[in-house]
Amino acid sequence: MERKLATIRRVASIEPIFDQDGIEAENIALAAFEDIAWKCVVKKTEFSVGDLCVYIEVSSIVPDVPCFEFMRARGFKVKVARFLKTTFSNGLALPLSILEAFGDAGLIEEGMDVTAHMNVVPKPDPIIPNRNEIAGAFDTDIIAKTDEMRLQSVYRILDELQGKEAVATEKIDGTSITLLVSEEEGTLRPRVFGRNWELRQREDNVYWRTALGDGIFEAITDSGGMLVVQGELAGRGVSNGGSKVNREPHIYVFNLFDRAAKRYFNYDDLLAWCAQYRIYYPPTIRRWASFDGTVASLESLAQGPAFHDPKQQREGIVVRPTNRNTWSNVLGERISFKVINDLFALKND
After folding, report:
1. In this structure, are 139 and 263 located in the same domain?
2. Per-residue pLDDT tens digits for 228-275
3. How many domains, the chain?
4. Which residues have a Cβ under 8 Å from the Cβ of 189 and sit 6 or more positions away?
5. CA 45, 49, 53: angle at the middle one, nearest 5?
6. What 3-state class would DSSP assign to 342?
7. What is the pTM for the complete model shown?
């Protein structure tokens, strides 16, 4: 499911904000919206309940144009903010009049996606390969990319997960990697993909160097050669958190896809495979025999120490059913979503 970075939303509520001494803020309040679970700080007099507005998600970048001049000091990045040391603000709520700066948007309706109209783009990947490293585009005919939606954008997915066996694993601060082996003219050829590209084999490429060092291609071949491994590449020089510690990069596997059976391994089978071949996988934060999580409880669960350094906050969690082939009508794909830790995002987003 593709993210909608800028959408038309209806204000569902406006709540007061209090400082640590319990004193209410005079000029700002916390707005919530229909059909999404995001909340952000707004001026008290700017919106009323029932108003339509333009909502822009965090981890987005707005264009360098006059109407966004107020974002210049932030590098035009929409990031998590904290007000009065008590209240997190996720995203921007702007009056509909801002659309005029980008020309006629047509009929304005609740839920309308105005991302392209406003030239809002996602935050770039932490690692962008140069031209000499790219062998081709990511092959989505083999497997889907790994790019979970944030829970607050698709919170109705919780209804689909209720009562199912599920697990929350740590969202490790890194970059996604996909590995497989192709048979070409009787020869097995290892292949490495980043988030959007297939990468040429190079000794100085951290994706290839780590995949070879972790022995993942040998594990795929020994398992029959039909597995696709997807995980998070993290460690020194790769990610925000990992770069702060003296830890070699490794791949933490969270998906195993069997191309022959056209099915993903269930969670316990994935753990057993990783244990058999001594391959890393993300730490389990919580497991439910019968899932009963809420937006608030999962936002709280997302906070906590990172596995690589207990003195740092983890990036967040990823929640999936233990049956990794469980379908979501909300997403139009398998059930999987992430919850980002606001304390982490405050420093690193």
Report:
1. yes
2. 999 999 988 776 544 455 678 999 999 999 999 999 999 999 999 999
3. 2
4. 181, 182, 183
5. 75
6. helix
7. 0.92
